[in-house]
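Lecture 7 notes: from sequence to structure.
We start with the chain below.
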Amino acid sequence: MQTVFTAKPKGGIYRRFIKRRIDFVLSLIAIILLSPVMLIVAFLVRVRLGSPVIFRQKRPGLNEKIFTLYKFKTMTDAKDKFGELLPDEKRLTKFGKLLRSTSLDELPELFNILRGDMSLVGPRPLAVSYLPYYNSCERQRHDVRPGLTGLAQVNGRNSIKWDKRFSYDCYYVKHINFILDIKIIIKTVWKVLSRKDIGVAGVDKPENFHEYRKKELEVKDSNY
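Predicted C-alpha cells for the same chain:
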C-alpha cells in the first residue's frame, strides 16, 4: 500500500525568507572555493569527452517553472551508423562514472542555486516529461525550489522505488525547517565521501517515471 503524505509547504519565516538567503551566500562561497576544482574538471571533460563540457537540460522548478539545469558532461557523443546516439551505458566512460560517483558532475548546479533556480536542499528536479503523470500529492514537490540534494537522496537515492522517493519529497515539503536541512546536508557529505547509492544512467537507475506510472495505471485498469 502506497504511503501518501498531504504535503503543504511549511517552515514559516525560514522557508519564505531565510532559506533563499542562506542558499545565495553558501553557493557563492562554494563557487569561489571550488572554482579551481571546477576548472580542472572542465579541462578534463573537454579532453576526455569533448565539447561542450556543460550538459544542459530543461527541468521544472518552483511552481513548475521550467529552468535550464547545468551539469558537467559525463557521456560521449558516440553515435551509430544511422547518426543516432548510442545507449547511455555505451556512452558512459570510466571517467564519466568517476564524475558521477564523486558527484563532481553536479558542481555546476551551484550556479543554478546562485541564480535562484534551485536550493541546496529540496526535491531533486526531474524530467519535464514527468509532469503530466504526477498525482496531486507528488505535484506539490514543486511548491518549493528543487535541491542539489534532498531527503530522498540521503535515504537511498536511485536505489529506492518511485513511490518511496516521492513520499520523502512530500514529507520534506510538509516539514521543511533549518534543522532538517542541516541534517540532510551532513548526510549528503557522508554519502558523497562514502560514494554510496550512486546509480549509473541507463544501467541501474530506476525506470523512467512516466513509464512506471503508465504500467501502474495499466495494472489498475486491468483489475476493473
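Points to note: Helices lie at 12-48, 88-91, 94-101, 109-115, 136-139, 162-175, 178-194, 209-222. The longest helix spans residues 12-48.
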